[in-house]
Amino acid sequence: MYYFLKNKDFNLEEYDFEIDCIPRFTKKEQDVFDCFVANFKYEQEFSEFPENKLKISGEELQKIIFNLMKKNVYCHVFKDKTEITQIYFNIFDVVVIEDSKVVYKFSDEIRATKRKGNFFSRINVLAFLQFKYSYTREIFKLILRRNKRQDYLEFTIKEIKDLLGIDKDRYNRYYDLENKVFNPTIRDIEYGEIGLWFEKIKRNGLKTSRVTGVKIHYTNIYHVQVHRDTNEILKKFTDYIEDFAQAYEVVSSYRKLKTLDETLEYIETNLDTVFKVN
C-alpha cells in the first residue's frame, strides 16, 4: 500500500484520509515554516534563504528549527470508514545554518507534494501544514474529493455548521459566520492553490430574506499563486511604481511564464521598462 501511495494517483472517491502534525505549530513556528515553504526549490535537492530574512535572533531561530525537527506528520487512510494505513514521517531530512544562510532539505514525503502522481501531491501535504484554521481543512478535503477544476458545494446553515464542527448556538447571525469562519477560510485556503467564495442562499431570494444556506464556489487556479507572488514583488519595488494597475499587469503577465526568481531577475535588470522609470 505504501508503494502505491508513493507512486500512483490517489483515488479520493475510494479512500478518505486524515492528516495532522504532532505537536501542532505555534504561531512563531508556523511563520518560520511558511518561510521554508516559500523558498522551497522542489526541483533541487536543497533549498536555502538568508538567515536574517526571518527578522528574529539567531538563538530564537535555532530553538524553532530544533522544535520543527522534532515534529511528525501523520496520515491515516480509510476505506469505507475502516482504517487501512497509518503513515508517520518527519518534515525535514536536514537543516544547516552556515555563512548566514539556512540550508535545508525537506523529507521525501514533503518533497513528493510537488511531484504529480502520488498520495502526497494528491492531498497536498504542504497546504495542510500551512492552513491556520480547522475549518479550512474540512472544506479543502471536500473540494479535493470532488476532483473538479471548478464547481460549487451547497449546504444549509445547519449542515455547514455540523460539517465544520461549529456548535448550533454559535454564530447565529450569518454576518458572524461570514466574518469569523468564511472570510478567514477564503484567505487560508490559498495555500492549497484554491480560489474560494461563499454565496448566501435566501429563503425567498429577497434582500431582506433570512439566510438559510450557503453555496461554496471554488476554483483550482494557478493564478492564486501568481497573484500572491505579484503582490510580493510589487512590495519590493514600491518606490519605482507610479501606476500600480499597469505595474501589476506587466509583472503578473511575466510571472505566468517564468519562475518567481526569474521574474525578480528580469525586473531588477529592466526597471525602466517595467515601471516606466524616468
Average pLDDT: 88
Q: Estimate percent helicity.
A: 40-55%
Structural class given helices, strands, pairing?
alpha+beta
Q: What share of residues are in beta strands?
A: 15-25%
Number of domains: 3
Return Rg in Å.
21 Å
Distance between the termini: 62 Å
Biggest sheet architecture: 3 strands, antiparallel
> H/E series, N to C?
HEHEHEEEEHHHHEHHEEHHHH
Strand order within the widest beta sheet: 1-3-4
CATH topology of the largest domain: Arc Repressor Mutant, subunit A
What's the CATH class of the largest domain, please?
Mainly Alpha
Total number of helices: 13
Strand tally is 9
Global outline: globular
The second-level CATH architecture of the largest domain is: Orthogonal Bundle
Identify low-pLDDT runs: none
